[in-house]
């Protein structure tokens, strides 16, 4: 009996993941005009954002392979740490860029 319940839980989780993946991809196209207006970015700059998103999706099989090799717990710790380092690095770079642009506007 536990096997049937577990099977339906797994099917439900896969279905939920598929729905969220589809919605995320759809929402990016719908939200593009609003995001571009609020962030004051061009179409070319927005294309870099969508390219990064697509690159992340393309790396899913590679990440799955790495998780299979090193294990789920170690892999989760590794990718959470990497996510944190990438986020911190991007925030520092954006801050440096903002300060630099503000400095250059004074000339």
Structure description:
This protein is an all-alpha fold and 107 residues long. It folds into two domains: 1-58; 60-107. It is 93% helix and 0% strand. Helix 3 (60-70) crosses helix 4. It is flat and about 75 Å long. The N and C termini lie far apart (74 Å). 0% of the residues are buried. The model has no long low-confidence stretch (mean pLDDT 88).
Give short descriptive properties of this protein.
4 helices; mainly alpha; 107 residues
* Structural class by secondary-structure content: mainly alpha
Distance between the termini: 74 Å
Approximate strand percentage: under 5%
What count of domains describes the coordinates? 2
Q: Which regions are unreliable across 5 or more consecutive residues at pLDDT < 50?
A: none
Main pleated-sheet profile: none
Number of helices: 4
As a percent range, the share of helical residues equals over 70%
Shape: flat
Mean pLDDT: 88
Q: How many distinct beta strands?
A: 0
**Which radius of gyration do the C-alpha atoms yield?**
20 Å
Short description:
This protein is an all-alpha fold and 107 residues long. Helix content is 93%, strand content 0%.
Question: Could you outline the blueprint of secondary structure elements for this entry?
Answer:
Elements: H1 2-39, H2 43-58, H3 60-70, H4 72-105
Helix pairs in contact: 3-4
């Amino acid at each position: 009996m536990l096997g049937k319940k577990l099977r339906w839980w797994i099917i439900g989780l896969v279905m939920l993941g598929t729905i969220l993946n589809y919605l995320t991809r759809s929402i990016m196209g719908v939200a593009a005009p609003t995001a571009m207006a609020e962030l004051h970015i061009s179409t070319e700059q927005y294309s870099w954002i969508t390219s990064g998103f697509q690159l992340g999706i393309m790396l899913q099989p590679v990440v799955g392979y790495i998780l299979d090799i090193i294990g789920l717990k170690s892999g989760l710790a590794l990718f959470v740490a990497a996510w944190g380092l990438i986020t911190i690095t991007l925030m520092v770079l954006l801050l440096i860029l903002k300060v630099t642009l503000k400095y250059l506007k004074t000339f």
